[in-house]
Each structure stands twice: as structure tokens, then as C-alpha cells.
From TrEMBL:
Entry's Gene Ontology molecular function annotations: aldehyde-lyase activity; zinc ion binding
Binding site for dihydroxyacetone phosphate: 180, 208-210, 229-232
Superkingdom: Bacteria
Keyword line: Metal-binding, Zinc
Binding-site residues for Zn(2+) 2, renumbered to this chain: 104, 134
Binding-site residues for Zn(2+) 1, renumbered to this chain: 83, 179, 207
One of the GO biological process terms: carbohydrate metabolic process
Metal-binding found in the keyword field: yes
Catalytic residue list: 82 (proton donor)
Organism of origin: Arthrobacter echini
A Pfam match: F_bP_aldolase
Extent of the signal sequence: none
Protein's UniProt name: Class II fructose-bisphosphate aldolase
InterPro entries for the chain: Aldolase_TIM, Class_II_FBP_aldolase, FBA_II
């Protein structure tokens, strides 16, 4: 199937109640390894970039890498801009060829968030792209974006009105989840997912996935969380794998960068295939 619109990936997952890993990459190695893991698992995957990654690597370089690495790929893949409050970056990525964006105006009043999200949806549609939206900030700082302060949860009526008015394709509610590593087991408002799905039949994005239990993932995916975001787990795997290899290299006084990259890549591929199996997307790639 190859590069596909976000809806072509999340809608089947939502209907069949499996979750698609949406993984934040940050360089060429992580991009290639995440894609390779999806191919190995025969799973769709959503590859995500933060605003920080777009600015540090550059949208043109990122998209050129994406085009090169997805040429001829046989599983459904899509390129998504994660948590972007900057309309200029949204426009830049849509023009470059991103398949979807999360316009994150959760720090604005809901009315202004809604007004701007309507504009972003129209802009995305002109590029054949989709939009994820949210009205409450997800607790935690990720790639220099966000806050550790818990934001106020809006009413179900406000959430449904936002979905109706904007025409977003995926909705990301705050349910007690958080970005980064959880300091304690989170208590999640899972019923809010069910209420939104029963009222509007819209795919839900689960943010702050790194660190949730298998039982929590299974329950939330069954309720309609078709897009499952993973960022911290990849960062930890990348850095811990590299650190372990470098400690061994120091001990052996043997410095071979390609061997380091091969070692780290293998650990990332393994992480991705495990996530695909855990979320139920393994084998759903159409091959």
C-alpha cells in the first residue's frame, strides 16, 4: 500500500479495534528503523515528527528522507506533524508533503482554538491531508512543548461541539494521560473515550502512551483509541541502547560507529515489532 492518508490507516483500525503505533522519530536512523520494524511486523505505522525535530533537521531534509525510505514500502505508512501550535510550521509541513498534522491550540480558549482549527482543516484538505485536534493540553513537556501543570478538562458537550464544528479526523482527549515517563501508575478516565466514541464515532488518539500497562492499552484500544502515540519509549531505547554499546566499546577500546548504529537499530526494530503485536496492528499491513 505504501504512503497513505492518515484516514486510510486509522479508520480501519478504529472499525476493527486495533491500535496503530504513532512513533515520534528524530533522525535518519530512527526513521529507517521504525519503518523497518513496521515492515517486519507487516503493520501500518504512523511516523511522527515534533516541531523541535522539524526545526532541528529541516522540513525539506526530513521529507526527502521520508520519500527515499518509503519508496516501494509495502505496508501503509503516513507522516504526521505532532503537537504543533505554530501555524507557520503547519503550513510549511503541509506544503512539503506531510500527510497529517496535529494543530495544538490547546493553550488558547476553546472558541479561538476551534476557529483556528477550522482554518487548519481547510488548509490541510487543500493538500489532501488530515487533521488531529485537541482542546485540552496533555500534561507533561515533550520536545520543549507543553507544561507539567494539569489542564482543566472540558465538558463532553464542548468536546463534541468542537469535533462537529471543525471536522477533524482524529480527536485527542485528555483522560489523565501524560507525556514523558509516569512517576506513578496513571489513573485514566477511560469512560470519556467511550462517551466520545459512542456520541460521534470518531477515532481517538491516545497520547502519553509510553509507560501505560498492557491492560490499559488493551482497554483503551477496545474503546476506540486507534492511534497510539509513542515518543519517550523510543528516546529511551535509542539512548540506552547506544549507551550500553558505548560502554562496551570503551571497555574494549574499539570505536566503530557503523557497529553502534547497527546495534541501536536492531533494538529499535525490536521495540516497534513488539508494539505492533501489543496493539494488534501486526499482520494488518496488507502484505
Amino acid at each position: 500500500m505504501g504512503v497513505a492518508p492518515l484516514k486510510d490507516i486509522v479508520d480501519p483500525a478504529f472499525q476493527a479495534r486495533y491500535g496503530v503505533p504513532a512513533i515520534n522519530i528524530f533522525n535518519d536512523l530512527t526513521m529507517e528503523a521504525v519503518l523497518a520494524g513496521a515492515v517486519e511486523a507487516n503493520s501500518p505505522v504512523i511516523l511522527q515528527t515534533s516541531v523541535k525535530t522539524v526545526r532541528s533537521v529541516g522540513s525539506r531534509v526530513l521529507f526527502d528522507m521520508w520519500q527515499s525510505m518509503t519508496r516501494g514500502i509495502e505496508v501503509p505508512v503516513t507522516l504526521h506533524l505532532d503537537h504543533c501550535p505554530d501555524r507557520a510550521v503547519v503550513t510549511e509541513c503541509l506544503k512539503a508533503g506531510w500527510n497529517s498534522v496535529l494543530f495544538d491550540a490547546s493553550e488558547l480558549p476553546v472558541e479561538e482554538n476551534q476557529r483556528q482549527t477550522i482554518d487548519v482543516v481547510a488548509e490541510a484538505r487543500s493538500h489532501g491531508a488530515q487533521v488531529e485536534g485537541e482542546i485540552e493540553a496533555i500534561t507533561g513537556v515533550e520536545d520543549d512543548h507543553g507544561s507539567d501543570e494539569v489542564s482543566q478538562q472540558q465538558s463532553l458537550e464542548v468536546a463534541l461541539a468542537f469535533i462537529d464544528a471543525t471536522g477533524i479526523d482524529v480527536f485527542a482527549p485528555s483522560i489523565g494521560n501524560a507525556h514523558g515517563s509516569y512517576k506513578a501508575a496513571p489513573v485514566l478516565d477511560v469512560e470519556r473515550v467511550t462517551q466520545i466514541v459512542e456520541a460521534r464515532n470518531v477515532p481517538i488518539a491516545l497520547h502519553g502512551g509510553s509507560g501505560l500497562s498492557n491492560e490499559q492499552f488493551t482497554d483503551l484500544i477496545a474503546r476506540g483509541c486507534a492511534k497510539v502515540n509513542i515518543s519517550t519509549a523510543l528516546k529511551e531505547t535509542y539512548m540506552q541502547s547506544s549507551l550500553a554499546f558505548l560502554k562496551q566499546a570503551e571497555q574494549n577500546n574499539k570505536w566503530d560507529p557503523p557497529s553502534l548504529f547497527k546495534h541501536t537499530r536492531a533494538d529499535i526494530v525490536a521495540m516497534v515489532t513488539e508494539l505492533c503485536t501489543q496493539f494488534g496492528s501486526a499482520g494488518k499491513g496488507g502484505r
